[in-house]
Amino acid sequence: MPGTQSAVSLTDVSKTYYRGEPVYALDGVSLEIPRGSYTAIMGPSGTGKSTLMNLVGCLDTPTSGRVSIDGRDAGGLSDRERTRLRGSEIGFVFQTFNLMPRLTALENVRLPQLFQDVPRGERTDRARTLLERVGLADRTEHFPNELSGGQRQRVALARALVNDPAIVLADEPSGNLDTETEAEVLDLFSEFHEAGTTLVVVTHERHVAERADRIVHLLDGAIERIERLDASDSTDGDRDRSSGAAP
Fold first, then answer.
1. Residue 29 vs residues 47, 78, 108: alpha-carbon distances, Å
2. For 192, which of 64, 92, 159, 237 is 20 to 30 Å away at the CA?
3. How many alpha carbons lie under 13 Å from residue 187 in its C-beta half-sphere?
4. Is the pLDDT of residue 237 over 50?
5. Where are the domains of the chain?
6. What's the CA gap between 59 and 92, in Å, rounded?
């Protein structure tokens, strides 16, 4: 991957949907997500969190502004190129796991490797190693319906990481888990972040967001403020909506 400082950069990004009349989902959002950082996104329902994730994940394109993923302007790519970028540079973890029911845990983890020009044996070794790292060495040949919710989320995390992406996006990753299992999964997120993975997590839960280095608070399609949780960062923890790009 290119050696850029930011995994993701949004510059004056707006997104408008037309449903009889215009709906302004995002309005002039600028945000830098440094490589290796851990960012949480919070805000009321309908404030633009899902739209922001879709743009960062190259599942949608902005109405105006620029979204760069690992130094590449996503808006300037064709649909096929964006698909390949998603497959190679972005990992996804969903609240509902989104595992293929007829594939084993190992086969589910290997799916994103279809975008990689890597020998089959190496792909399998990588997938197996990640399942071992998330504590599922003895579940590689189990199907999703044979796994608990926490185990399925661990498979989803391993799948998100299998291509060593520039960024991992997680949408309410602990929403379907009990308290004990949630803590185990969030501990895994923290472990991978400490190893250098760039994480962006959308959550409604304050205790989940507090695992991050900073919390980006959205309101009415704009960044209301950025709350910094990393004690080593001496910069001001809040930024109002009119102060320009967020570092």
1. 12, 23, 34
2. 237
3. 10
4. no
5. 36-61+78-228
6. 11
What's the length of the chain? 247
CATH no., domain 36-61+78-228: 3.40.50.300
179-194 vs 149-161: helix crossing angle, rounded to 10: 20
The CA distances from residue 202 to 169, 237, 240, in Å, are 8, 19, 20
Task: Tell me what the mean pLDDT of segment 101-123 comes to.
Answer: 86
* Three-class DSSP category at 236: coil
Give CA–CA dist 60/118, Å, rounded: 28
Nearest to 167 by CA among 88, 75, 50, 99: 88
- Pick the residue with more confidence: 190 or 75? 190
Q: Is the pLDDT of residue 58 over 80?
A: yes
Backbone angles phi, psi at 181, to 5 degrees: -70, -35
Tokens (6 digits) for 119: 């020998």
- Distance (Å) of CA 113 to CA 7, 14, 128, 160, 165: 20, 32, 13, 10, 11
Residue 41 token pair: 């996104």
The DSSP 8-state label assigned to residue 246 in this structure reads B
143-186 pLDDT, tens digit per residue, is 999 999 999 999 999 999 999 898 999 998 888 888 998 999 99
Please tell me the distance from the alpha carbon of residue 1 to that of residue 160, in angstroms, as a whole number.
Answer: 16
Please tell me the pTM assigned to this model: 0.85
SS3 7: strand
